[in-house]
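writing this on my phone so excuse typos. first protein, seq and then structure
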Amino acid sequence: MNEIKKAALHTIDAHANTFTAISGAIWDEPELSLKEFKAAALYTDALEKLGFTVQKNLCGIETAFSGSYGSGHPVIGILGEFDALSGLSQQSGVAEAQSVTPGGNGHGCGHNLLGAGSLAAAAAVKEYLAASGKSGTVVFFGCPGEEGGAAKAYMAREGLWYGLDAALTWHPSDTNEVSTGTNNSCIQVLYKFHGVAAHAAGDPHNGRSALDAVELMNIGVQFLREHMTDDCRIHYAITDAGGVSPNVVQANASVLYMVRANKVADSVKLQKRVDAIAEGAALMTGTSYERIFIDGTAETLPNFTLEALLHASFAGTGVPQYTAEELAFASALCRTFPPQTRAPGIGAKFDAFGWNVIELQDGNDVEQIYDAIQLAYDTKGKPTCIVLNTVKGLGATFAEGTGAHSSQPSKEQWDEAIAAAEKKLAEIKAQ
């Protein structure tokens, strides 16, 4: 790595307090999609202080903004997100669930980190351009509403991305890696059912329950799940149950649905089936309904050339060195997860590239592994990926289910582990 690049990276350390303060403030005051007014103000103020030219209210979205530096091409966009989720209020610095406000908002997806990390990257690129004297422009985009609202889709509709040569982002995770493959396309639709109110005891026959329609729709979608491909997902939330009085036939009720699939065409097909179920629920209950489109996004299109370039740069930069305190906190977090927790998305990534994916829920079962290999040989015309969901340290009580990747066992622990392995080997040989 040359000295100019090293100096650019040093910029991140020099302004570390700024980035961590923004992340902490957004964690402490989580705001829902398209209502991130305090977060947007924090970022625009920071961008101006760092020497970026700021533009607010991008594409008519109050909490969308940009900060640019430089001139000419290439024009590199760096995308930051900062919205929270409802019901995920959480105190910082503790490894167990402890809400600040019961039922309040929180950052389950780590968007407080996402935006701050993207800002740090933009600041480093700005320093590189200034120090090298090279042509180029870096633009930090504040992208609200990722959790619901899909502001980036509306920014795309306005042609905002056409001026970019490339756009980069990242997402907090438990691994340092350059992501490849794709993400699911997604469609959100709100269904509002309207019926006729009536007294549930004195006049129920004249009522038409919108809540019944919501419930029947949900039941219909449950039966639909058997007839979807494995890459599809459907989620829902009842946003309006019609009230809190059971002695009233509810005249209005609403349910919000989210449909996902690997390809946008498949999402659209599945969404039409959900629409048909909503229509059927209205017919069965004598109610009417409104279909309100909320947002929709296509799947991510991978850029393998850019990914290879990023990986080379990533390898040259190296990974952070963590303190003993940080590692202890990470271990405490690991212990809150069930031992059998799957590594998310591994099989889905290979499936997106057309591989035959075989996933074993018990990756420690030798017979299952053998059967999976035979299935792989029987599959012609495409490669096979076998995903093993394993338990680390199986059979060794001191290590099993801890999630630890490395340790220094005592002699007694080593003896226990070896004895467990020898016992298992004997069982396999006896079969």
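second protein below, same order as before
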Amino acid sequence: MANIVVVGTQWGDEGKGKVVDLLTAGVEFVVRFQGGNNAGHTLEVDDRQFIFHIIPSGILYENKKCLIGNGLVVDPEVLLEEMEGLKKTGITVGPERLSLSEKAHMIMPYHRALDLAREKAKGKDKIGTTGRGIGPCYEDKVTRAGVRAIDLTEPDVLEEKIRTNLKEKNFLLEKFLGASPLEAQPILDHYLAMGQKLAPYITDVSVELDQAVKAGKAILFEGAQGTHLDIDHGTYPFVTSSNPVAGTACSGAGVGPNQIHHVVGIVKAYTTRVGAGPFVTELEDETGDFIQATGKEFGATTGRRRRCGWLDLVVVGDSVRLNGLDSMAITKLDVLSGLETLKICVAYEIDGKRVHQRPASLGKTALCKPVYKEMLGWKEDITGAREKKDLPQAALDYLSAIEDITGVPVSIISVGPNRNETIVVKLPGS
């Protein structure tokens, strides 16, 4: 069986959760490899909506094992809330169903406090962070001051780390950012209590995955956010604090690169992004409003309105290269139904010169004008289509244009939010 990586090719919110849910049927293990609860995967199954922030969306299948890799930063409070919410729906979440890497770093209250205080201090120059403490937690990881999952089971280690960290964090909060300081003891007590609850789930995910590989089990690697929010490759500084690209599946889960067999890039049929940052194909008109309203483009984590625009294949093309895409899953194709004319950005123009890669410079990006390929739209409702041939010709032409320009075949087409509103052209990895 093939091991598959699922990545977003734009600025997140591409519909990765639904594709992961679909592909989970053919694997035994599903593992998240980066990010934190700043991500939100929304699924609709049997007219019920599920939103996952940390737990892999494969948890909806009873016979699958879900793993939270070392590459994540985890808010244990959010994780426990998510587990409890699933139990209330009748979904069992025990250690036999879920593992938490002992090496995953924990988001602490001072991380959230710093995140919010820094963003407030930036005023109009704010990045648009979710305020969940993701960035400050990754900072502590890099400076070797982080609290790991294993520390929740070792009271002396946890206490020392909390008290040591608070000396610095409280100075920053109080003296530099004008925010209230935090007390160590309530944090220690709360995290020790959560550690007791999570202890049965804490394990070496890398070893568990190695055993799965040796037993011939199939693994699905689930990324969060999108390629152009990558800390290295995204629209810096308007990015997340981790690496959502496919290569991170190895370091963020603890497997070798030879264990990755297929990479699926999730491409929303148009482009969206949340928060600030460059957006060459953004539509600030009636068409943008139509796409936003029809697609219900609000952040699953923040509730913020997503900015909307035409499909940008310069952005997607960069993602093809950075992730080594083997196939694409096109999502929300149904949202475009009713538009008479569609546009696909095939290049940028800067000072009269065409370019086919997104500039690293924000100044140059601001000068970019989209070069569009115009296509006919369709008026038909396509949510009932279950085979590619059921789609109207204009929709087929739109998909063909995406394949021709990117050089990557479309393996999956989503025509609605529900699990069954999907066309599988060719199952990835088959």
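The chain has a mean pLDDT of 93. thats all i got for now
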